[in-house]
Amino acid sequence: MALRRCRIHKLSPTLTGKKCVSSTQSAVRTYYSIHHPDPAPFPPIQAQILSTALKNVPRLGFSRDALLSGCRENGYLEASAQLFPRGVYDLIHYYLVTQRLALKEKVQFQQDAKLSLTQKVKTLTWARLQANVDDGIIEHWQDALGHMSLLENIPASLKELGNLSDEIWYLSGDTQVDFGWYTKRAQLAAVYAATETFMSTDRSKDYADTKEFLDRRLGDVRVVGGTVGGAMSYMGWIAGNGLGLARSWGMKV
């Protein structure tokens, strides 16, 4: 994909220009290799601006104002927002990617821990959902879902959802790669999307209703510990549930 070259301006006694490359592509998990670190998902300047903007989301929401605040607080002119051609969605995407990558530090299972695969997947899934609360953005998450459901943003949103599912399975210790794995990946993605949407309107104490919802959905699809035989089963599931995956996240497709 061609990289978009642009110029940003840093605030200083004398304004000077600095060329940079705009790119907010997500890092692809090195699923097949655990011996190399993940590449940096965002260029340094973009990451600096987005990280600062994200801190203002609890107050400003996922908005252009939050994005512009990230520019200003790092000494850049507001015109530097051109670094983010997808606007507010780039801020949302940054949050999705960085939270996915943070899971491996937030949740670490001891080697002698007697946890089933089911328990590990549930723990990791809940840790990611809980981050929306801990970071103070849960009240703005319906707006974020609205941006994610825009036609131009659906492919990137679903791709990152798939990456999150990959990460959860990987960190749970499931490294088997076959058609059963691909099906579990898609099913867990659908469960996560539906649960996150439910959580955005949950008003129960400590999100107890969301926890029950997650338990139910995992049980309904028997996503953990199950096996699926062959390519036809996988393709059949996608045909019947592919659109449902997008709709689970409230996407109008």
From TrEMBL:
InterPro entries per record: COQ9_C, Ubiq_biosynth_COQ9
Name of the protein described by the UniProt record: Ubiquinone biosynthesis protein
Pfam (any one): COQ9
Taxonomy, superkingdom: Eukaryota
Domain COQ9 C-terminal: 154-224
Assigned keywords, A-Z: Lipid-binding, Mitochondrion, Transit peptide, Ubiquinone, Ubiquinone biosynthesis
Function of the molecule: Membrane-associated protein that warps the membrane surface to access and bind aromatic isoprenes with high specificity, including ubiquinone (CoQ) isoprene intermediates and presents them directly to Coq7, therefore facilitating the Coq7-mediated hydroxylase step. Participates in the biosynthesis of coenzyme Q, also named ubiquinone, an essential lipid-soluble electron transporter for aerobic cellular respiration.
Record GO biological process: ubiquinone biosynthetic process
Family classification: Belongs to the COQ9 family.
